[in-house]
Amino acid sequence: MKTILSLGLILSILAADAAIAAPLPADTGIAWNLTPTAITQSCKQHLDEARARITSIEQRAATEPSPRLLLEVENAVADATDALAAQTLLSSVAVEKPVRDASTHCIDDVAAFGVQLSANPTVYLIAQHAEAQAPGAAERRLAHLYVEAGRRTGAGLQPQQRARVTGLFDRLNKLQTAFGRALGEDHSTVRISAAQASSLPAAFVKTFKALPDGYEVNVNEATAKQFLDNEASPEARKRFTVLYLSRGGQANVTRLAQAVALRTQIANLLGFKTWADYQLDVSMAKTPANVFALLEKVQVALLPKARAEIAVLAQMKKAAGEDSPFANWDYGFYAHQLEKTKYQVDDEAVRQYFPVKKVIAGVFGIYEKLLAVHFDEIRPAMAWAPGVTEYSITDNATGAAIGWFFVDLFPRDGKYEHTEMVPIRMGRAIPGGTQRPVSAIIGNWPPGEPGKEALLSHGDVVTFFHEFGHLMHQSLSRAPYETLYGTNVRRDFVEAPSQMLENWMWQPSILKEISSNVSTGRPIPDELIRKMIAAQHVADGMNWSAQAFYASYDMRLHSAGATVDPTPLWFTLEKELTPLPGVPGTVPEASFGHLMGGYDAGYYGYLWSRVYAQDMFSVFEKGGLENPLVGMRYRKDILERGALVEPQQLLHDFLGREVQYEPFYQYIGVTPAR
To answer: What is this structure's pTM?
Structure first.
């Protein structure tokens, strides 16, 4: 179905002064100030209530075989999920450890409930009946996904086998939660001397803990790039790298190995040879063979380029008087030196143009224009920690309030370590209207020096724009059911909308919109933008080879059976597929959170979905990057529909044709064999 925009809607999009309703109040209906006891008690209460509702539905199923029963199941689950929004998010963001711990236990209980529901044979039969008898397309799609989930969790197995699968899933979920918490609780630090700190940006050094003889530096996602790009001492870079690649420790390696074994057992019990076969059965890629074919094509084309890039950096190291072999911890430093010398792009100089407040306001402005929405900050925020900001979303065309989102961007003890968009509460149809969604961006930007605003690298800006694209996907969905809402699309499509939007952050006119020199207020100059763009693809060989390596490791790990040892596999593939040597004595896979955070046998999706991303971007290139008419087509065809239809249909409706691979190959610098 092709979206047709009415004349009235077109005029409302183009209007300079859209009618904006008053922003929503701060209260989203979610209570954040929960004690550990309150979390434990409310978690049990809401799950017990959901189980009782499901039991009642099961009892009626024999005499009331109506498709409406599945909607009752969906609403029972959605009500519980919504009621436990805070209880499950606080594990990643709460200030106090006892609160995080109680939330972690609740997450385990919610996951166990979800497994039991998916494997429930009566719900499976209800879903099968509903798929055949559903009154509408949305209800039929909902039923299809329930049937699919039941098949994939053992609902059709005999009771003994089904109980075994459910038990394995419970154990797996607990391992995954523990893996993530171990990373959040990792407090690794490295000590450096004052002399070693002298090559680091002064503002960065001011965020360190001062010692009598130097500084203590946190080793985490927020500090890694700035430290490794600027630290002149190879000895200090090595110590930092060893600690960075050891986060999570052997305990997380053990958890990963146990998870792979459990996944293999589950796959076998459900009729699949490997976990990779099981996961890809409901993906766009369909089979591991298709994934490996794409990865091989990328690796064959880009590995020689990556080796050539490393050879240039190794020569720079030798010219600097260092005779030791080029090491893993040398890469960031000499790549940064190459950018500064050959391309005259200094990351610290670029940071001066991206103060946090300007970036956030600029990014918001672009999305407001593109998607015909408006954001208002709500003060004071009703959030989970000091420093978290809260916003409301309003539709320009109607003036209707859409929902809320939170922004939590700086590190703190125990907080989730990466950057991600978190769907806190889905939008959905409820009695009397529509429930408004609540989402958040959880990040770990390097904090500013005391008393000053944080300054962002261009990479930080790209990441924020990417994650905000996910937030818009989540917030603007109009799917009526939680299971079909927002980013609940196929795993190897979910990154495509946000990856497409990354392209905006390389356009000169848009970079000027979101930049402002922290001292002068002037936008980033044309000459610096030109140099940044010239250097954009200088490390494509390394960057995309690394992505292909991570994806290959994930696929091999989940194709090798129950007894694979994660660490030797990592170092074997790293040597085979990348030009950088591994770091002996480290366990990089122990902090590879994607493997235990929903991207298991799915990391390839970052490459796979880039195919769709670059093809979608070609529509904006032709129609205008800030053209609100194209933006509204994108909103209607892609974002609003969620999982109401398969991604192939979403793409066809937006593109007006079948997907083309040429924009992807051009983007990553590959010339595929014909």
So the answer is: 0.90
